[in-house]
Amino acid sequence: MIATVAGLVSLSPLQAQVIPVYLDETKPVEQRIDDALSRMTLEEKIAVIHAQSKFSSPGVKRLGFPDFWTDDGPHGVRPDVLWDEWEQAGQSNDSCVAFPALTCLAATWNPGMARLYGENLGEEALYRDKDMILGPGVNIYRTPLGGRNFEYMGEDPWLASRMVVPYIQGLQSKGVAACVKHYALNNDEEYRHQVNVVVSDRALHEIYLPAFKAAVTEAGTWGIMGAYNLYKNQHNCHNDIMLNQILKRDWQYDGVVVSDWGGCHDTDEAITNGLDMEFGSWTDGLTMGKTNAYDLYYMADAYKQRIKEGKYTTRELDDKVRRVLRLFFRTTMNRQKPFGFLCSESHYEAALRIAQEGIVLLKNEGNLLPLTSHLSPLKILVVGENAIKMMTVGGGSSSLKVQREILPLDGIRERFKDCEVDFARGYVGDTVQSYNGVTVGRSLYETRSAAELTAEAVEKARQADVIIFFGGLNKSDHQDCEGHDRQEFGLPYGQDQLIEALVKANPRLVYVNISGNAVAMPWLAKVPAVVQGWFIGSESGEALASVLSGDVNPSGKLPFTWHQNLGDCGAHALNTYPGTWREDYKIIDEEYKEGIYVGYRWTDKQKIKPLFAFGHGLSYTTFKLGKLSADKAQMTVDDRMTFTINVTNTGQLAGAETVQLYISDKVASVDRPVKELKAFQKVFLQPGESRDVTLTIGRDALSFYDEATHAWVAEPGTFEALVGTASDQLTAKCSFELK
């Protein structure tokens, strides 16, 4: 009866008198929330703010609110686990499409791809009856050793902001809540529960918070996940400054704050410091398998007892429940949700398009690529374990059970059917056959020694027309993986030595780096072609083959600065990472001494030449930028200013170029970066086609965060707009005044 009544569009006067307000869809949502809250018992209120299983919380059965189900993202819908355990539930209908990791999405520099990503992921979640996807992630790429960087959107707050908003809008357009994570300052994985971040207010607001703020104030995200780490000695899952002051007061956030799994540590702080829903706490009762163990959570019986003892009123509780009910009305009680689809052709097509747009051509000396530019049939040698290793399995909570994953070797063989394609493994990195109950498709068991594998690869290389080496990192511990950071900047498993041997035997080598992080490339001068292939999901093999063959013209741009060595990164140059343990070895303080100078901001300030600059990415065609013009010579703080530049495809192939606008404050009362990204636009052009690209900025593009007044300040004076195709390729500029 409840479901039928709740689905009514219009009600007669008699029905309106009988139906509870909270079920009447003709009433404003806030009125329905008030009515439902007034009907709930203390026990029901406590129940909805903490988990009842690994990934669900209870609704209010007596009132007709169904259970609320979350699931890991952000690259696909994670397979179901058992109610109380992390092991697979053994279902046969929980495979999914794996979309590219978020570093690849950011590398598209195309907000349209982010919207497509969110919509398709939302449809998969709907089919699986998931109400909230635990993603996307927007923590800043501060060091290339960060184990979870592959789940985030790079080093620049503006780029991350522009990409996260349409992702959330696309996902929530399907009636599935986003849960943006990990708020905030979760920039490394090692000792993530003990790291207390020490950072200036300016760096916090200019670098580490903008993408979260955009998610709240522009995209209207329904969920935010607190981070494991501490800020000002409070865990971020119950942090007064982060949650009460910045998120809920300053940004007027009306959604829920969800704890990261096991991120809650104290009942009193959880009550007063802004946490709304508690998940995954490892209480003694839960680990011992006690009946009703979830009642032992910090916001369960302990909270209820404090209310009964009079230590707290229900003021804080009612605010939490009000937010949870608002979430319910947006998701589980939303009768207008569309239908979901699982593993549909359109989802695979979306995954392929995003992957193709995100792949970055880093180097192409002598136009070795695309391979179709050479006489065929070719003798192609594919080398490297990453050509045969599934990358959708492993890496922590983003590990997936996919319906299919096209491996690079298979993609190459399918695309180059007319060629002779051989394979040599070359190195052994990881022979694990399963992760969290999901097996890896192809056996990685190997008995040959490193010397034997190298000898085989070198001998085959001598006979090949071209070598495609698939190397980089994988999803194992201390690589691109949750829970640990990388232990070195260099490539693991002896890959450097293998590359040196291969290129000596045959200089026609294409190196494809599979990773979510930058790596050292001491052999770069000897290798003519380098491609950044990311972790790109179900369609990885087809996407990579389409770019290498020239079927698709690469257009990806780096979302982070690719340093030549670790010392070129501010966090390492100043010896601030990974921090200093306190005397009791319970907390490690990590001071962000580089402040606002992250990524290209640091290399600009120190005049360091990166291996590959932020925003760098080549094409198989060429582009020419014309003269930059502005719609005015002066602007006021209430104005907006538009810049126009003509872009021409001067090559022989259709392709896309990303026009990037950086702003430089020429004279300021505070230290400011040499330049900062403030606008960009990707433009697709046919050979010979020209188009005017317009880029608009407002006061926010000229402002800095003033620590004295706790406000954003735009100082009058001279500014310079710098426009180009990468942060180190800014060929057009013009000055203007802020009055």
Q: DSSP helix count?
A: 21
Structural class: alpha/beta
Radius of gyration: 26 Å
Main beta sheet strand tally, sense and closure: 6 strands, mixed
Oligomer: single chain
Strand order of the largest sheet: 1-2-3-4-6-9
Keywords:
739 residues; alpha/beta; 6-stranded mixed beta sheet; 19% strand; globular; disordered N terminus
Can you give a write-up of this model?
By secondary structure, this protein is of the alpha/beta class. The chain contains 21 helices and 30 strands. The chain has a six-stranded mixed sheet with strand order 1-2-3-4-6-9. Strand 18 and strand 19 form a beta hairpin. The N and C termini lie far apart (64 Å).
Question: Mind sketching the topology for me?
Answer:
Layout: H1 2-6, H2 13-18, H3 29-39, H4 42-48, E1 56-57, E2 68-72, H5 102-107, H6 111-127, E3 132-134, H7 157-172, E4 177-183, E5 195-198, H8 201-208, H9 210-217, E6 223-226, E7 230-231, E8 234-235, H10 240-250, E9 256-258, H11 267-272, H12 284-287, H13 301-308, H14 315-330, H15 345-358, E10 360-364, E11 379-383, H16 408-415, E12 420-424, E13 434-435, E14 438-439, H17 450-463, E15 466-472, H18 495-505, E16 509-514, E17 529-532, H19 540-549, H20 570-573, E18 580-581, E19 588-591, H21 600-606, E20 623-625, E21 629-630, E22 634-635, E23 641-649, E24 655-665, E25 676-685, E26 690-697, E27 704-706, E28 711-713, E29 717-724, E30 732-738
Parallel strand pairs: 2-3, 3-4, 4-6, 5-7, 5-19, 6-9, 11-12, 11-15, 15-16, 16-17, 22-30
Antiparallel strand pairs: 1-2, 7-8, 10-17, 13-14, 18-19, 20-23, 21-23, 23-26, 24-25, 24-29, 27-28, 29-30
